[in-house]
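Dear colleague,

Following up on Tuesday's group meeting, I ran the structure prediction for the two-component complex that the binding team flagged. I've pasted the input sequences exactly as they went in, so you can double-check that nothing got truncated or mislabelled along the way. The structure tokens for the whole assembly follow below. Feel free to forward this to whoever is handling the docking comparison.

Inputs:
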Amino acid sequence: MHVIAAYDIGEKRVAKVLKTFRKYLTWIQNSVFMGDITKAQLEKLKMELFEIIDEDYDQVLFFKLNSAKMLKSETLGKEFNPLDNFI
Amino acid sequence: MHVIAAYDIGEKRVAKVLKTFRKYLTWIQNSVFMGDITKAQLEKLKMELFEIIDEDYDQVLFFKLNSAKMLKSETLGKEFNPLDNFI
């Protein structure tokens, strides 16, 4: 499946969250990751994030699609580095 | 169409960008907006944003889908207020 993840994380925990995301997805903007991921990998990512975040203050949103082909992207401003699997 | 927009905007311009987005989409996280929008409205939003942002420093990413039904969302941490058209 294809996932866009956007997070809003307290400063103390943001570096750990970033490091965890990097293992599974591609960093595309300040607090946005994206990429193809299996259901099992996504569960693993969520469990790892769950260990780091403070549930009362932090938030991670996942937007899940069957395929990247369903998505069209567009950038305003600074160049966006298109990913291989990004249409 | 359904749109997720994520922005990374310099502090001086962020309030104006937020105000502009609010006219067209729903604020769902720190720097993420979402909602149904027509092609004409999206063009209008982009033109308005283009007047505000500094192209060398700021970035707005748009992820466009035919329908919100293609998307499944999931939240980790703080509650996410689901939108009417959000599945």
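Chain A touches chain B through 35 residues (CB under 8 Å).

Cheers,
M.
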